[in-house]
């Protein structure tokens, strides 16, 4: 089962034990056939296919020293800065194959995060988490499991701590010698219905009184007393139309609210229990990993939008106009900035433990995500400008398929004769469905932590005092300076120093 094919993954999801998943109030029998979730399963499937397709298999596979076999990179523990860069490249590539958020990266980032945190705890003498985790990792790699990562709690009133509003944070309600019981909910969990297992992590730095909330574990989705409620997205009703132009062909992602109603977790799946001091570090490590990844997947979607805008410009004969070329050029600059930053976060990685534990550069990872909160909106704006108002007004595919209307639509929406009206409508829909999607806009702002979380992280790394010293020296308001060895005016990229506050709001 190491290196499953996409088909094997879909079959496994289709034939798994019963899971309790709801879409628009109704329980879903088979996610692989449900029109609302099928596009999401297909996007997830692409992460399996990528390990087999000629153009992507060198990025899509990696060597695991844990099981001494080649594994799908989505289950791999990064062993070098180049491994981290390969992640960003792979995500850009799979965006081209799906035009969607393909959802599997969250579980991958969670896997790497727990690897690092359990190693750090082992180095301080608490070895059981690491030992359990390595066994779990081997199981995941051998079976090429589809993982979701669950970090965000519902959080209720943001000024209250977990112990002041226990229902708002997932918590341990009972510990026995065999395992733990947990209750609570995790929100906005990407790809949950298409996953087989969830890795659950704490959402913020915890104090001593919050130790019941400092818990990390993994659990199969088909465990009793877990319920999933899938959220809505813009244009999601189109999936239910089962058309072939307007909605269904687009692979999409979904997010869900996952409810844990006194769920039992066996002890061998518990990777943190009451270690409140580690909670903020874990959040910091996870969020930086995921922020780095956005440099790949969002630039990949950017390529799709640039391509669609270029094609639509050609379809109406304006692709050589200087102002169109300037706009396309701006889109490329914005896009490559996001990507370049993700690559920098990878190649300038930080080594957190003796035999590896390669963590992304936290400054560049946070800068990447901060760019991603802004640039996709700019890219979509330029593409809207190029495409014209038709992006918001085009007739539906059902109009095009109506024989009474088809000749009129074909006549009046025709552009250059090299393209049919259907070509134009297809491209308009592609641009609309991706350029205005949750994956490209809303998730770009709030996924992997809202913009303020990155500003806090950036401020923690950047040493304003040192920058001021440089300015004072050059203006000769101070006569002497002791230059640091490093070129960057950063305090530290040490996780413990960075984690006082946790990575998220
Ligand atoms: Fe992967 Fe990007 Fe989706 Fe996150 S937003 S799961 S990094 S594709
Ligand atoms: Fe995300």
Automatic annotation (TrEMBL):
<dbReference type="Pfam" id="PF11794">
    <property type="entry name" value="HpaB_N"/>
</dbReference>
<dbReference type="GO" id="GO:0016627">
    <property type="term" value="F:oxidoreductase activity, acting on the CH-CH group of donors"/>
</dbReference>
<dbReference type="GO" id="GO:0050393">
    <property type="term" value="F:vinylacetyl-CoA delta-isomerase activity"/>
</dbReference>
<feature type="compositionally biased region" description="Basic and acidic residues">
    <location>
        <begin position="485"/>
        <end position="497"/>
    </location>
</feature>
<keyword id="KW-0274">FAD</keyword>
<feature type="region of interest" description="Disordered">
    <location>
        <begin position="485"/>
        <end position="505"/>
    </location>
</feature>
<dbReference type="InterPro" id="IPR046373">
    <property type="entry name" value="Acyl-CoA_Oxase/DH_mid-dom_sf"/>
</dbReference>
<dbReference type="InterPro" id="IPR009100">
    <property type="entry name" value="AcylCoA_DH/oxidase_NM_dom_sf"/>
</dbReference>
<feature type="domain" description="HpaB/PvcC/4-BUDH N-terminal">
    <location>
        <begin position="5"/>
        <end position="272"/>
    </location>
</feature>
<protein>
    <submittedName>
        <fullName>Vinylacetyl-CoA Delta-isomerase</fullName>
        <ecNumber>5.3.3.3</ecNumber>
    </submittedName>
</protein>
<keyword id="KW-0413">Isomerase</keyword>
<dbReference type="InterPro" id="IPR024674">
    <property type="entry name" value="HpaB/PvcC/4-BUDH_N"/>
</dbReference>
<keyword id="KW-0560">Oxidoreductase</keyword>
<keyword id="KW-0285">Flavoprotein</keyword>
<feature type="domain" description="HpaB/PvcC/4-BUDH C-terminal">
    <location>
        <begin position="282"/>
        <end position="474"/>
    </location>
</feature>
<dbReference type="InterPro" id="IPR024719">
    <property type="entry name" value="HpaB/PvcC/4-BUDH_C"/>
</dbReference>
<dbReference type="InterPro" id="IPR036250">
    <property type="entry name" value="AcylCo_DH-like_C"/>
</dbReference>
<dbReference type="InterPro" id="IPR004925">
    <property type="entry name" value="HpaB/PvcC/4-BUDH"/>
</dbReference>
<dbReference type="Pfam" id="PF03241">
    <property type="entry name" value="HpaB"/>
</dbReference>
């Amino acid at each position: 089962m190491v290196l499953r094919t996409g088909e094997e993954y879909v079959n496994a999801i289709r034939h798994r034990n019963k899971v309790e998943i709801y879409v628009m109030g109704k329980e879903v029998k088979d996610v692989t056939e449900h029109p609302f979730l099928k596009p999401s399963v297909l996007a997830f499937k692409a992460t399996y296919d990528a390990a087999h397709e000629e153009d992507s298999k060198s990025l899509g596979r990696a060597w695991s020293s844990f099981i001494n076999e080649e594994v799908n990179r989505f289950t791999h523990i990064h062993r070098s800065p180049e491994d981290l860069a390969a992640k960003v490249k792979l995500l850009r590539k799979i965006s081209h194959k799906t035009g969607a958020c393909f959802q599997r990266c969250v579980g991958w980032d969670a896997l790497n995060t727990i690897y690092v945190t359990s190693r750090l705890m082992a180095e301080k003498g608490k070895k059981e988490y690491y030992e359990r985790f390595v066994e779990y990792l081997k199981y995941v790699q051998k079976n090429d499991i589809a993982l979701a990562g669950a970090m965000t709690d519902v959080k209720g009133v943001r000024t209250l701590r977990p112990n002041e509003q226990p229902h708002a944070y997932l918590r341990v309600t009972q510990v026995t010698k065999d395992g733990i019981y947990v209750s609570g909910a995790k929100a906005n969990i990407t790809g949950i219905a298409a996953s087989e297992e969830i890795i659950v992590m704490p959402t913020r730095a915890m104090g001593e009184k919050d130790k019941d909330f400092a818990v990390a574990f993994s659990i199969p989705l088909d465990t009793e007393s877990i319920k999933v409620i899938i959220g809505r997205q813009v244009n999601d009703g189109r999936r239910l139309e089962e058309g072939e132009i307007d909605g269904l062909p687009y692979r999409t992602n979904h997010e869900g609210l996952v409810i844990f109603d006194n769920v039992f977790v066996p002890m061998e799946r518990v990777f943190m229990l009451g270690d409140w001091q580690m909670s903020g570090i874990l959040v910091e490590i996870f969020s930086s990993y995921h922020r780095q990844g956005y440099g790949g997947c969002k630039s990949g979607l950017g390529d799709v939008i640039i391509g669609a805008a270029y094609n639509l410009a050609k379809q109406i004969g304006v692709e050589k106009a200087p102002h169109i070329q300037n706009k396309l050029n701006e889109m490329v600059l914005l896009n490559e900035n996001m990507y370049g930053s993700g690559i920098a976060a990878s190649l300038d990685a930080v080594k957190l433990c003796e035999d590896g534990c390669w963590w992304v550069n936290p400054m560049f990872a946070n800068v990447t995500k901060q760019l991603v909160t802004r640039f996709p909106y700019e890219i979509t704006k330029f593409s809207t400008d190029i495409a014209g108002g038709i992006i918001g007004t085009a007739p539906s595919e059902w109009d095009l398929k109506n024989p009474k209307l088809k000749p009129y639509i074909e006549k009046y929406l025709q552009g250059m004769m090299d393209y049919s009206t259907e070509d134009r409508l297809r491209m308009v829909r592609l641009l609309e469905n991706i350029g205005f999607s949750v994956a490209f806009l809303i998730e770009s702002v709030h996924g992997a932590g809202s913009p303020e979380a990155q500003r806090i992280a950036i401020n923690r790394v950047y040493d304003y005092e040192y920058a001021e010293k440089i300015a004072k020296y050059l203006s000769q308001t101070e006569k002497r300076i002791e230059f640091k060895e490093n070129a960057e005016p950063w305090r530290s990229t040490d996780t413990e120093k960075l984690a006082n506050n946790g990575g998220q709001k």
